[in-house]
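ok so I'm stuck.
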Amino acid sequence: MRPTTDAAACQVRDATRADLAAIAALHTGARAALHRARFPDTPFDAPAEQLRWHDAWSRVLEGDDTPVLCAARHGAVVGAASYRRRDDDGRPAVTLHQLHVDPGHWGTGIGRALHTSCLRAWRTAGYSRAALDVLWHNHRARAFYAGLGWRPDPDRRPAPDATHLTLTLDLATAPAP
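replied:
not stuck anymore, here's the structure
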């Protein structure tokens, strides 16, 4: 049975230290699901990977320079996003650093709800432009972002052996959430 796609059943809020284990677990699971398709015998969700992402998210949640949002459905954390402020040639800009959804909730609107909350926060903070890096081979994520108006950065074309693609979003012209 697929989880509900009812947007009202999803709550996006600021993440807290209490959400750390759930965020690290869903991040590990999402990465494992993505990479397992390309490398079926690699243990992307091994305990060492889980610890790696737990430590990384712990540092993010302890800092005050990287806001973290989480999406919860029926009290369970099923998605997370974090972003960093940056300067873009003198204009206030932001980088979407992470956006992950538990694979059991892919396609249910969790990612869109997190993205919408990020857009609201960015516009409120006065950012003019957003950027993100996406894995070149992550066609699911690339299609998701393209559908939300993100476009390849014309100033940062990938090298022939690139693993990532930089996408940008002009917050002044992006559709309002």
